[in-house]
Amino acid sequence: MKIKDKTYLFNELGVPVYGLQKIRIGSSSEYTAFYFGDKKTSNMQKGKVKVTEGDGNDSTYYFSDSGRGYTGVKDGYLYYMGKLQCADEGNKYEPISIPTGSTRTTYVVSTSGKVSKSTTVKSADGVKYKTGSNGTLLKVDEENPSGNEGKEPSEPAWK
After folding, report:
1. pLDDT tens sequence across 104-126
2. 62 within 8 A of 47, measured Cβ to Cβ
3. Does 148 reside within a domain?
4. Residue 8 backbone dihedrals phi, psi, to 5 degrees
5. What CATH number corresponds to the domain at position 118?
6. Which helix or strand (DSSP H or E) is residue 61 part of?
7. In sequence order, which residues have a C-beta less than 8 Å from that of residue 40 and are 6 or more positions away?
8. 82-106 pLDDT tens trace
9. Angle at 68 between CA 62 and CA 72, to 5 degrees
């Protein structure tokens, strides 16, 4: 519901919700994240935001102008359901496979979540990843990817 140009979500008791919310998309089983700020704010947030997730950890998120958690590359960083995707600490670089419709697209990211574009980088254990101009994985140790490279993206930690 929009009130004075701000969007709110209310629970079944009519109380505004806040924090990170898992929202179904249409009538499908798909879902994504929306963020409604803290208890005091309780309205839909947009853009790049630090969010305390359900597990108590802070993560960086990006929400589109519609409030929906962004999936894909934004400003050189990789997001899934709004959550910044990063290589695990100690790996330096890691391929992450993002669902895109019925297929998956694998990107190579650093521990900060920055997408490696048009380059060759090495993981901490010496695996070489060659990437295209959009950051997608082209080669693994000079071989074509076999299709099983890339870890699953980490979803938001829901309450």
Report:
1. 899 999 999 999 999 999 998 89
2. yes
3. no
4. -125, 155
5. 2.10.270
6. strand 58-63
7. none
8. 999 999 988 899 999 998 778 889 9
9. 55
